[in-house]
């Protein structure tokens, strides 16, 4: 089957990989000159399978006013005269209840664990047999650090529930926390406790995309994939109510099936077909701190619960990421937001952020395509020949391999490993 995939981020590239394994003739279209150049480029780096609870939770609405009043808030909201934003917000607020949040968490945990299994099998297959393969993948575990006693107590109460869903976690007091991660010694007296999840992993998402491209390139053992970088998608071709291909600046690319995996940029592409996925960009920021030899940087991944900032050791760097800004517009760097990341990193890990110009800390911003309830759209749309793999929010890297596997199984007519209805793309 001729399959055209729009988008070469981590979701598009993993989809290409899985479909190529099934023998499809796959073409990937991407406007950038290489894979993973947008939202996948410098994300948080944490493969956080046990922390997939949606942003729309039962306590979120009560926190929003306080967040909006803080200049260094983990969330910002800028209203615009766009009905799509208000529809998204209304649906988000409807999802902010315990029942919906718990149901969504269960579904995302199943997808996350499936994705973890798929990624680990992929790495085991290729890390030794393919020269040049690598993306600083490591199983480092994750510490979610609490400085508020009430918040830590609340997290501890969830441990049995998380365990019932398959999560391996334990509560640590401040001494055990610092013993596990000595880089936190500078804030020992501020720590109320931490939740430790040993199974969590890290990796460089951009390098993962590049490694996939290398494995799929012509001349490799994986045939049937054409990677067309530097190609601008202009629209989707239709005939008789069916999508028949993709129009590009280099001509039309015919297809039996088109998979749209272009993140937030997919919204205007799909609109002429009457497909309107409820996506809104959550703008996030990161810095990448070069680590000097002997730097007392964390080896375990760390999440600062109160400030919603994540820290991941990736090779000889520390990736620091956070923020969820519900704003319209592009990826312009807001110096104040990046400054918050720098200041929080210096406060948490004394002495590891060198006194460098900000540009040398590689400030970055990306637009994470989020659905209101946190569930991605995976599978066939309401339009024949059009499939979607969209809406993973901040969990694109974590959920990519599982999402690709789910889509590939459905396209092949196999029984999926998960309940496909949980991520029904016909919702769009």
Task: Summarize the entry for a quick read.
The protein has 428 residues and is an alpha/beta fold. It has helices spanning 10-21, 60-69, 83-95, 98-126, 149-157, 159-164, 174-180, 205-216, 266-270, 335-348, 396-412, and strands spanning 2-6, 25-30, 46-47, 75-77, 138-139, 142-146, 170-172, 193-197, 201-202, 225-229, 233-239, 242-248, 251-254, 257-260, 280-290, 301-304, 309-314, 317-326, 364-370, 377-380, 386-390.
Give the key terms.
about 425 residues; alpha/beta; FAD/NAD(P)-binding domain; D-Amino Acid Oxidase, Chain A, domain 2; 2 domains; nine-stranded mixed sheet; six-stranded mixed sheet; 21 strands; globular
Structure notes:
The chain has 428 residues and is of the alpha/beta class. The chain has two domains: 2-41 and 206-276 and 373-427, FAD/NAD(P)-binding domain (3-Layer(bba) Sandwich), CATH 3.50.50.60; 53-96 and 135-201 and 280-370, D-Amino Acid Oxidase, subunit A, domain 2 (D-Amino Acid Oxidase, Chain A, domain 2, 2-Layer Sandwich). 31% of the residues lie in helices and 25% in strands. It is built from eleven helices and 21 strands. Strands 4, 6, 7, 8, 15, 16, 17, 18 and 19 form a nine-stranded mixed β-sheet that branches. It starts with a strand and ends in a 16-residue tail after the last helix.
């Amino acid at each position: 089957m001729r399959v055209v995939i729009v988008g070469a981020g981590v979701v598009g590239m993993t989809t290409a990989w899985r479909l190529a394994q099934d023998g499809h003739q796959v073409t990937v279209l991407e406007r950038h000159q290489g894979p993973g150049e947008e939202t996948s480029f410098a994300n948080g780096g944490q493969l956080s399978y046990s922390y997939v609870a949606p942003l729309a939770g039962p306590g979120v609405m009560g926190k929003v006013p306080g967040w909006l009043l803080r200049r260094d808030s983990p969330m910002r909201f800028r209203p615009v005269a766009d009905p799509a934003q208000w529809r998204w917000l209304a649906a988000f607020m409807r999802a902010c209840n315990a029942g919906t949040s718990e149901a969504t968490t269960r579904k995302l945990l199943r997808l996350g664990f499936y994705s973890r299994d798929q990624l680990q099998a992929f790495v085991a297959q290729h890390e030794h047999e393919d020269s040049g393969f690598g993306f600083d993948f490591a199983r480092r575990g994750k510490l979610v650090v609490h400085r508020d006693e009430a918040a830590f107590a609340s997290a501890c109460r969830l441990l049995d529930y998380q365990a019932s869903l398959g999560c391996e976690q334990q509560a640590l007091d401040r001494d055990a926390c610092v013993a596990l991660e000595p880089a936190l010694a500078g804030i020992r007296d501020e720590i109320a406790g931490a939740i430790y999840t040993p199974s969590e992993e890290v990796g460089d998402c951009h390098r993962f995309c590049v490694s996939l491209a290398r494995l799929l390139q012509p001349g490799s053992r994986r045939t049937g994939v054409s990677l067309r970088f530097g190609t601008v998608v202009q629209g989707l071709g239709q005939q008789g109510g069916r999508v028949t291909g993709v129009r590009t600046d280099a001509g039309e690319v015919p297809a039996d099936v088109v998979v749209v995996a272009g993140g937030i940029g997919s919204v205007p592409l799909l609109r002429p077909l009457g497909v309107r996925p409820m996506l809104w960009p959550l703008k996030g920021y990161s810095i990448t701190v070069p680590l000097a030899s002997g730097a007392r940087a964390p080896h375990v991944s760390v999440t600062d619960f109160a400030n919603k900032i994540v820290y991941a050791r990736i090779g000889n760097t520390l990736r620091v990421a956070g923020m969820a800004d519900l704003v319209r517009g592009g990826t312009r760097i807001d110096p104040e937001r990046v400054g918050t990341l720098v200041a929080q990193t210096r406060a948490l890990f004394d002495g590891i952020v060198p006194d460098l110009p900000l540009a040398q800390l590689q400030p970055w911003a990306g637009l994470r395509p989020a659905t209101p309830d946190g569930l991605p759209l995976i599978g066939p749309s309401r339009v024949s020949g059009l499939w979607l793999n969209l809406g993973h929010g901040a969990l694109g890297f974590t959920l990519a391999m599982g999402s690709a596997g789910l889509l590939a199984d459905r396209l092949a007519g196999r029984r999926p490993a998960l309940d496909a209805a949980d991520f029904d793309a016909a919702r769009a």
